[in-house]
Amino acid sequence: MAKIAVFDINCKQVSEKELVDDVFNTDVKEYLLHDMVRYQLAARRQGTAKAKGRSEVRGGGKKPYRQKGTGNARQGTVTAPNHVGGGVVFGPTPRDYSFKLNRKVKQSALRSALSARFQAEKMTVVNSLDIDAISTKGFSQVLERFELGKALIVIDEENRNLELSTRNLPFVKVLRADGVNVYDILKYPNLVMTEAAIDRIEGVLAK
Fold this sequence. Notes:
Number of helices: 7
Radius of gyration: 27 Å
CATH topology of the largest domain: Ribosomal Protein L4, Chain: A
Low-confidence stretches: none
CATH class of the largest domain: Alpha Beta
Number of domains: 2
Number of strands: 6
Strand content: 15-25%
Largest sheet: 6 strands, mixed
CATH superfamily of the largest domain: Ribosomal protein L4/L1
Shape: elongated
């Protein structure tokens, strides 16, 4: 089993933790990461774009002018696409962009994302992230001790002080273990996890 150093909030190593290889040290399958990111981004799309067709725009009840004798091309309605204000040909309509991915594919993609961060030495483990008070400045100093810039922080359960302290930091995101996902892991170059969060994730993803 792979091992990783465990630090306290003051960036002092306190122990080592063994990681399940099937979760944190498996083969990184980039095609699964690509599929999972596409899946997540597609599910976020609203799909509300809409343009009116010729049957939906206002007007068109009367023929614009008589069929013959005017010298103009014959026209049957002002709602035709060739008229200003007419309907749109093959315009966008509301749709659902999401698609299906198998559960095993999702889990394998998450294992690959976690393994990619561990193998690149971009993963930091802390024994606890409990802070006494809500302080954005205070938590910024914690990140400076670890020399971390943009980072994803994964905790095991609700931590109100931590979540509110990071709310105004645009380069930091806090997720609970049950909400960890491939897109956010890849978006943030550094991954910070608590020991308890690792135990919970391993309990779900370990084969």
